[in-house]
Design a protein that fits this description.
The complex is a heterodimer of chains A (252) and B (568). Chain A is of the alpha+beta class and 252 residues long. Helix content of chain A is 43%, strand content 27%. Chain B has 568 residues and is of the alpha+beta class. Chain B has five domains: 137 residues, no CATH class; 83 residues, no CATH class; 131 residues, no CATH class; 75 residues, no CATH class; 49 residues, no CATH class. Chain B starts with a strand and ends with a helix. The chains are: A alpha+beta (252), B alpha+beta (568).
């Protein structure tokens, strides 16, 4: 075969590849959405738009005892760490300051991401309108749930896309792999010990849960900072407690 | 003629201490308010008025409550039990407002009076958890598994022992016209249409004639290294010597390659044991040698620690705990500034927990060992009532207190202000003091601390009686006390240079001290045992305020002068 024959074959192959590519782009929405997120997959658009925000919020919450802006905290390594149990006096067990920790964290996440959710829906709307869609968004609720190994945020916003056909989307779920649920369970258990005995033994927890690292850092005022770390995922949760503190001397 | 030798400050022991203690409590109550919320954001604390938050509580649209009483006596800060009905978690010591503001259910009852807070054994799948019934139901809905809640099991260990993993075996079923197999429980197998369950068989068993065969690699499971068959099912624990043993690929068997210490870094055995210091990890992610087969080994969890090695001649094992202090003289020397720490080797890392920081050595580290395996704990230092003890038996009662017994001087005084005699173990009444075994720390640098009061308990007046010889010269009495001039007849040990022996012939009675040095030493021991007191260096070997005992001597010729100044 001569040089001209080879060139012809290459041209034919190239044309075939281009045609296949165009067909895939035109007929497979999943593939299309991967290439151009948002154009056909609002769920993927919202996941991409929100997951960094949720991840950042969860990290802040985890390092600050479950609050984005802790009101009553102990300063440890430049972090404001919320007291989940506290007593200002000597000898007494602490008063629990946050008994509904899971719900509190869930509501903190919702409060923090609310403006970003609105902004993401605005971006989504603009993106579809640019493509010639008529877009209608009915605002719904934002629900965040801490679950084993996951943090799931559900948006009950209703999205309608009209361009010839009508497409409706009723819920959007953003899933973040995170062990905060398990860490909070252990934090609650430590708090129970703090209220009853004024202290908790990290070794006991590590003997039970081999993937969990528990560190207790005592401060000069009798405050304890507990740092819980999942050894596999490196997810962390830290909080402060001050309970049954002994005074200097007889404490007169 | 009488010598009066005394330290500069004279304190009347316990009596004065109690007076001050009562004053302290009285004044605290007078100034304290129960703040529903403090200005610094805490709920239900007793604080001075200026620390109570006066803004509007968004929950009630009224100002946060303040009352000139203890929170214990108020309705709004009464502590009860808060139930998180969604999660099935209960907390004691919660004020009502704190509980309900995030949707909790509060009752004015102790936790053990709340039926919904009682714990039982939640058997869920092949796992078990000692939780409330609500929590058990929550776990069931989360994991989508059936539960069996057992109230009759009343402790966590018994509960975990009841976890039933179910009988496992080879579950053979037809898939795509071939015999496929899964190594699962009988219950799981029964859910597969037309499947046959072969209890205690492995899928690689030749007799089952499935597509699964031996040698499909290894994997970490339950912290041990397991063989996999070619379908990816679990087989037995990795034992290189049995890799070609058809029996080992047929039935479920216990491993026999265990070296008794967790098979750390073994190339041939995957029978790891967390409590012996090993767990399954990929050798690529650790410094472990590669195994003879597969990628996983029993990785060594022991630690490297130079200080431990220098002291005990080896590195610490996983799970070992030991005590250290920041002072170079060791754990038994509680010099001012000394802090106790408990170190623990865990998963190859030495974790540090401070026992005493912020607690003024009211918590200390206690170390013990079994077969050279060290164990330690941060423990409460029960020193507070040592000096009140009147018998050696009570003093050394380790169930109730951490004290030492020192004979020679008594801090406790009788009604006449004389040193009280205490009963030793032999039943003999002696001058003695029960002192803290681990001396506590004081905040002596802060105004208003009670360090001065506590330290001054060892101050004492020693009355030395002298008889003047015929050649005595008034001016020479203090500088020359040779026998010809004058001689000491009682409490002579308080005179510097007194060494006992010959001089005792003049003395009226036996006493506790053989020499001046002996007296100074005992008084010093008592003094430094009480806390950050007396003549001592601190934890970094820096000298304190006093380098020698403060001794002041006064000379009285006429005992009436003495009585006038110090009473009878």
């Amino acid at each position: 075969m001569g040089k001209r024959g080879q060139v012809t074959i290459f041209i034919i192959i190239a044309i075939v590849i281009v045609v296949i590519g165009v067909l895939i782009y035109a007929f497979y929405p999943q593939i299309q959405s991967l290439i151009k997120p948002g154009s056909k997959n609002p769920a993927a658009f919202m996941q991409t738009c929100l997951e960094d925000e949720i991840e950042d919020t969860v990290e802040i919450l985890s390092l600050q005892g479950g609050s984005v802006d802790p009101e009553h905290y102990s300063l440890y390594q430049n972090e404001k760490i919320e007291y989940l149990c506290y007593i200002n006096e000597y000898y007494l067990p602490c008063v629990v300051q946050q008994p509904m920790l899971k719900q509190h964290i869930e509501s903190e996440i919702v409060n923090e991401i609310s403006p970003v959710v609105d902004a993401c829906f605005e971006d989504l709307k603009e993106s579809y309108e640019d493509q010639g869609y008529n877009v209608n968004i009915e605002t719904g609720d934002i629900i965040t749930e801490l679950l084993p190994e996951n943090i799931v945020t559900t948006l009950t916003h209703k999205l309608t896309l009209i361009r010839g056909d009508t497409e409706r989307y009723e819920t959007f779920r953003i899933v973040l792999n995170n062990n905060l649920y398990e860490l909070i369970g252990n934090a609650n258990s430590i708090l129970s010990w703090e209220t009853n005995y004024g202290d908790a033994a990290p070794s006991t927890y590590m003997d039970y849960y081999h993937d969990l690292k528990v560190e207790k850092k005592k401060q000069d005022d009798g405050t304890k900072i507990y740092v819980l770390t999942d050894r596999n995922t490196k997810n962390k949760f830290q909080f402060a407690s001050r309970s049954i503190v002994w005074p200097p001397g007889y404490g007169v | 003629m009488v010598y009066k030798m005394r330290n500069k400050k004279i304190i009347f022991g316990i009596a004065l201490l109690l007076v001050i203690f009562l004053i302290g409590i009285g004044s605290a109550i007078e100034q304290s308010y129960c703040c529903e919320k403090t200005t610094y954001g805490a709920y239900c604390q007793n604080e001075p008025l200026d620390k109570c938050e006066g803004s509007i509580n968004p929950l009630t649209s009224e100002p946060y409550k303040i009352a000139p009483t203890s929170c214990e006596s108020t309705v709004y800060c009464k502590l009860g039990t808060c139930v998180n009905n969604q999660e099935g978690v209960c907390f004691p010591n919660v004020p009502e407002m704190v509980c309900v503001k995030e949707g909790g259910y509060w009752e004015d009852k102790a936790l053990d009076e709340m039926p919904q807070c009682q714990l039982g054994c939640c058997l869920i799948g092949d796992q078990a958890a000692f939780v409330t019934q609500t929590r058990c139901s929550t776990l069931s809905s989360i994991y989508g598994l059936e539960i069996d809640y057992r109230r009759d099991i009343q402790n966590e260990i018994q509960c975990i022992a009841n976890a039933n993993p179910g009988v496992e075996g080879a579950c053979v079923f037809e898939e795509n016209y071939v015999n496929s197999c899964k190594f699962i429980t009988k219950k799981e197998c029964q859910a597969i249409d037309g499947a046959d369950f072969h209890e205690a068989y492995l899928c690689s068993a030749e007799s089952l004639a499935t597509i699964c065969g031996p040698k499909g690699g290894t994997i970490c499971h339950d912290e041990k290294v397991y063989f996999l068959d070619t379908c990816g099912n679990l087989a037995n624990v990795y034992d290189n010597s049995k890799i070609d043993n058809s029996g080992y690929w047929t039935y479920v068997q216990e491993p026999t390659c265990d070296d008794g210490s967790g098979n750390k870094n073994s190339r041939v055995c995957g029978d790891c044991d967390y409590f012996s210091g090993s767990t399954c990890k990929s050798y690529r992610q650790t410094n472990s040698p590669s195994p003879n087969y597969g990628d996983y080994v029993c990785s060594d969890l022991d630690c490297k620690d130079a200080d431990f090695r220098a002291k005990y001649g080896r590195d610490p094992n996983h799970g070992e705990r030991w005590c250290v202090t920041n002072n170079k003289k060791g754990l038994n020397e509680n010099l001012p500034g000394t802090e106790h720490f408990m170190l623990e080797c865990r998963d190859g890392e030495v974790l540090v927990e401070s026992c005493s920081i912020g607690e003024y050595r009211n918590k200390i580290c206690i170390q013990s060992e079994v077969n050279e395996f060290k164990t330690a704990r941060c423990s409460v230092n029960l020193w507070q009532n040592c000096i009140e003890q009147e018998t050696q038996e009570d003093c050394l009662d380790i169930e109730k207190r951490d004290c030492n017994w020192i004979e020679g001087f008594s801090i406790l005084k009788d009604d006449d202000g004389e040193e009280m005699k205490l009963e030793n173990l032999a039943g003999v009444e002696v001058k003695a003091t029960c002192v803290p075994k681990h001396s506590p720390a004081f905040n002596f640098w802060e105004p208003g601390s009670d360090a001065e009061i506590l330290c001054s308990l060892t101050n004492s007046i020693c009355l030395v009686e002298m008889e003047i010889g015929p050649y005595a010269n008034r001016a020479r009495r203090l500088v020359d006390s040779s026998d010809k001039i004058d001689h000491c007849v009682s409490n002579c040990y308080c005179l510097e240079g007194y060494t006992g022996g010959a001089k005792r012939i003049y003395e009226k009675e036996e006493h506790e001290f053989d020499s001046y040095q002996d007296w100074i030493s005992i008084m010093g021991q008592i003094c430094t045992s009480l806390g950050d007191c007396g003549i001592t260096t601190n934890y970094i070997d820096k000298k304190g305020y006093f380098e020698e005992a403060l001794i002041e001597a006064e000379f009285f010729v006429n005992p009436k002068d003495l009585e006038e100044e110090y009473g009878s």
